[in-house]
What we know:
Elements: E1 17-21, H1 24-27, H2 38-44, H3 61-75, E2 79-83, H4 86-89, H5 94-107, E3 111-117, H6 131-147, E4 153-158, H7 160-169, H8 184-203, E5 208-214, E6 218-220, H9 225-248, H10 267-270, E7 277-280, E8 285-288, E9 295-297, E10 300-302, E11 309-311, H11 328-341, E12 348-352, H12 363-381, E13 386-392, E14 411-413, E15 420-422, H13 424-437
Parallel strand pairs: 1-2, 1-13, 2-3, 3-4, 4-5, 5-7, 6-8, 7-12, 12-13
Antiparallel strand pairs: 8-11, 9-10, 14-15
Helix pairs in contact: 3-5, 6-8, 7-8, 7-9, 11-12
Bound molecules: ligand GBH.
Amino acid sequence: RRMATTNPIPRFPAGFLWGVSTSAHQIEGAADAREPSVWDAFTAEPGRVRDGSTAAVACDHVHRHREDVALLAGLGVDAYRFSVSWPRVRTPGGLDFYDRLVDDLCAAGVRPVPTLFHWDLPAGLDWLERSTAERFAEYVGEVAGRLGDRVTKWITLNEPAEHTLLGHALGVHAPGRELLFDALPAAHHQLLAHGLAVRALRASGAGDIGIANSHGPTWPASPDRADVEAAGFYDLLLNRLFADPLLLGRYPEGVDELLPGDAGADLEVIAEPLDWYGVNYYAPTRVGAPRGTETDFGGVRMPAGLPFSVREIEGYPVTDFGWPVVPGALTELLTDFRARYGDRLPPVVITENGCSYEGLDDQDRIAYLDGHVRALHRALEAGVDVRGYFVWSLLDNFEWAEGYTRRFGLVHVDFETLRRTPKASYGWFREVLRAQRG
Ligand code: GBH
């Protein structure tokens, strides 16, 4: 067990946004009061979720949001990142819940930062179809019309990279497709949906707009050419495929034939200027040449036959999920981003960072977060314009294909009684925030 150092965390600039994140499907429950999503269909299939659970109740947040807002207020965060469930908004009265939540947050002095899509696509819609992007923009316009008088910071999508990889290429997340490289149209249509959503939000006069993309440094398994090339390809697929069109207005070379034929014509929409860029960061990935066998990617099986293989990172502690704890890789990621995108990179917000550990006295989580906040400060000192940091997550929740077996919360949830209990890390983060303001 490692303890956080006792040196105070360096001071972040005034106005730096401290927050915590959640997502609708992972915490809300109240599944009977919304349309089904692709995740409801997926979890109903045997064998899809490790503990056979569903998110029908989850943290029952819809009925307990007052208690959760009080936890946010007690923590002293500036902002709360949650997601709006598109299937709930499609249900008559569904927006009322978010209306109340936003009111309660404002009353508690916590700034609401909604994400408009965090993987819970309405059942019957499909990211392989271009029309889904248009439907999304209509829904976004509806949400902005209702919440835009109080919400001044928006996130369009959460991690289209992971939704494409895990949901459409490898089939370990909903909708459970195993299309490998044929999944890329789903990526393009999400990026198009993002661009159309930015336009819909701007048209409604909404404030600061960003996206939350999953990124991490890719480390070649060795300096050998085959490993370096494989790592470069992985970096292209998971990082550049999503950042380049948004920030540079073009797709990286080498993916053209995998995208829909007319993709180029959409780049102007996709590259609509952003007010800020959200980065979800957990761990670096070590990648080498293919080995002709399955490999393990943070608990996910990567099939043989891909042009790369994910390798274990040795020499670092790992979380309960098996992901390595490498705070320095966050500094590396951000300084590399700044070098690659230069002035095209808008101010950055870390929209997710966190780890899964068991227990209420979660000193390992404290060590993880402490290390990453310091690493973020080093990126700031190195000239990266970082404006905020959000911990994933406020609550233990439905961790997708892992069900309730991985706990990421600052607050423990007993999934029998739904009782919330702040962990040691909650108290630690509260003191960090207090010291930053003192
Ligand atoms: C996020 O996805 C999601 O947005 C959120 O909903 C989810 O609850 C949270 O993370 C926790 O999983 O290379 O072996 O170290 C993050 C997706 C996939 C991040 C794999 C890190 C690397 C594993 N991630 N990953 S490894």
